[in-house]
Amino acid sequence: MALDDEFLQRDLSQHPPALTPGYRSSVLRAPRAPLLSLDATLSEVTGPVFRADELGPLDHDLIRNYAHGGEPIGERIIVHGRVMDENGRGVPHTLLEVWQANAGGRYRHVNDRYLAPVDPNFGGCGRCLTDETGAYVFRTVKPGAYPFRNQINSWRPAHIHFSLFGSGLAQRLITQMYFEGDPLIRNDAIAGTIPDASAVDRLVARLDMNAAVPLDCLAYRFDIVLRGRRQTLFENKLQGA
Predict the structure, then answer these.
(1) How far apart are CA 217 and CA 211, in angstroms?
(2) The model's pTM
(3) Is 183 domain-assigned?
(4) Segments of the chain scoring below 70 in pLDDT
(5) If residue 98 lies in a helix (H) or strand (E), which one and from where to where?
(6) What are residue 206's phi and psi, to 5 degrees?
(7) Which domain holds residue 49?
(8) What phi and psi, each to the nearest 5 degrees, are found at residue 113?
């Protein structure tokens, strides 16, 4: 028998309801019973610890880490920022994994049937560790928008998926990053499920010309806040605080 304090109420001021018919996939994915909060075991909260020597030298460079004799097609960009706690302090040694569509809006996945071509020089995934100040950086190409089978003429705006690991595999948070100025954000069925406009805005990376490389690539800044009033909205963190 579950105790009352084992139930976690989703914070509907920021998070959408689990069942959101406007986003059709939620109809099948939404849980039918209250979620339980289970205590983590000692092994889950103490490891494994991620080290820089476990990453490959090109893991953070999506332009080069899958190249097969050439470079990927598309707008070259740098994405950088900091992972911070609620007080603005950097969180070091956080493992970030990213995955995305190519510049044409197609994922390198067997189930992606979009008519845009697969880029032979772009794998669409990478990873990096934050440094002692919580800073991270990776290089990639700007992903393209793509249609999906939600409603008639539904399109996903350009976005990059983020997975963050703390000190162990059980401490994983998932979110996605949009790009400043993208008009498709306001029509996105997924972003549209978020009731708090400021929470959506915290998912938008800002153009950062100071970090751009002249004659090479633009840059976008995306800071990630783990807790508190300015928390980044995570898809798998229900409390919202």
Answers:
(1) 9
(2) 0.84
(3) yes
(4) 1-15, 19, 24-28, 30, 35-38, 43-48, 167-170, 237-241
(5) strand 95-100
(6) -100, 140
(7) 12-30+38-226
(8) -110, 15
Average pLDDT over the chain reads 87
User: What's the CATH number where 128 sits?
Assistant: 2.60.130.10
Query: For the chain, what is the largest distance between any 2 Cα atoms, rounded to a whole number of angstroms?
Result: 63
pLDDT at residue 159, as a whole number? 98
Show which residues are catalytic: 107, 146, 156, 159, 161
Query: 113: which 2 tokens?
Result: 């049937």
Non-local CB neighbours of 43 within 8 Å, separated by 6+ positions: none
Q: Is there a domain that residue 161 lies in?
A: yes
- Asked, as a colleague might, if the bond just before 183 is cis with ω within 30 of 0, I would say no
Q: How many domains does the chain have?
A: 1
Tell me, yes or no, whether 218 lies in a domain. yes
CB under 8 A, 24+ apart: contacts of 5-8: 5/37, 6/36, 6/37, 6/38, 7/34, 7/35, 7/36, 7/37, 8/35, 8/36, 8/37, 8/238, 8/239
